Each structure stands twice: as C-alpha cells, then as structure tokens.
Amino acid sequence: xxxxxxxxxxxxxxxxxxxxxxxxxxxxxxxxxxxxxxxxxxxxxxxxxxxxxxxxxxxxxxxxxxxxxxxxxxxxxxxxxxxxxxxxxxxxxxxxxxxxxxxxxxxxxxxxxxxxxxxxxxxxxxxxxxxxxxxxxxxxxxxxxxxxxxxxxxxxxxxxxxxxxxxxxxxxxxxxxxxxxxxxxxxxxxxxxxxxxxxxxxxxxxxxxxxxxxxxxxxxxxxxxxxxx
Length: 229
Description:
Number of domains: 2
Order of helices and strands: HHEHHHEEHHHHHH
Distance between the termini: 28 Å
Number of strands: 3
Shape: globular
CATH topology of the largest domain: Arc Repressor Mutant, subunit A
Low-confidence stretches: 212-217, 223-229
Radius of gyration: 20 Å
Strand order of the largest sheet: 1-3-2
Mean pLDDT: 82
Number of helices: 11
Oligomer: single chain
CATH architecture of the largest domain: Orthogonal Bundle
Largest sheet: 3 strands, antiparallel
C-alpha cells in the first residue's frame, strides 16, 4: 500500500540540522547508512532528558528497523553494525563501547553527544545512570492543534498561526508538558502556555519549578487525558 501523503498541518516534526543536507546527505552512497542516520535523528529527538543516546541492543529490538535493514533477521546485527560504522566514519554519529555492559552507546556527533562519549571513555559517567524509560516509538503523539482544541477551545486563525510558530520552535514533549501544567493549574489560555515554553527555552527546563498545586490535580489530569479517548 502506498503512503497516503502528508497532512496539511505537519505534526510532530523532527529537527535535522541544516549541515546534514549541506555537508552529509549528498555524500551518503549506501541506503542502509542513510536509513540508520535518519532513524536516529527521529528516535533521539523523541527522548527526554539532557543527554540523548541509544544502545545498540535497543536498535536490535526494533523489528521494523531490522526488517528495513535486512530480509534475514539473523543478519540484523551485522547490517546495523556496518551502517553504524559508515555513519561514524563519516562523522554523523558517535559510538563508544561499554565493555562491562557488553553494549555500544550511540549519539549524534553534537556537543552533548561528544560530552557523553568523552565521559564514558574517562570512566566518569555510566550509561546505566541515565537509561531512558521505554516509549511507544511508533505511537502517534497529539499535535499542538489537537492539544489546544482538547484542553482550551476552538481554534481561531490568529491562534492557529501562533501554534504553528510554536510547533516549529519548541520540542513536542515540551509543548505537551506545558499544556499539562496549564491544565493542572487551571490556566487554560495560550499566553500562559507560551510563557512556560519561552521560559524553558531561555533558562532551561527545571521540573522542580513547575510542580503544580496538588489541589484538584487528579480531576485536571482526567480532563487533560480526554484527547486520547
């Protein structure tokens, strides 16, 4: 079955650095390397926390990725290793072996990724200290327009433009969390949500400062969760 096409409002967009298109894309000559690189842009973007990384053994557990890389599951590890080596040699990705865990940590070649790799090599940081909780990586997350209509009200042209700008500016998990905080505080308006996002962007996200008043939070959570029913 062919892909039905993209919707008018692009949802859950993934940020890919401009340098990838200017310096990397046209030099990639192996499809498996391109598949793995784009997959990791997508997968790492969906992670929470300050450091984003993935274990090689986690890749092997993704049956959709494995089937896209090889027709024989027995060759999955070899196919992924080959693609990973090409991407790391090109400088797009970074990898570091964690011998006591018999695994490999993979990051984007970015300042944060290089910090992770350097810390592991120096023995100052273990990947197990920052493991990510499992997520439904192929499940659709609510987009910013769905969140607004479910938790605040009908869209207007002005609000739609503001939401479109915010979706391009902020991480999807930040947007979802800002809506949740606004609902729990009974501050159901876009200006309040936008102020939270702007503060996080300017000064960094600090979950301790965003703990909601616990009064009526259970009822608020139930109202917030209605978009998924």
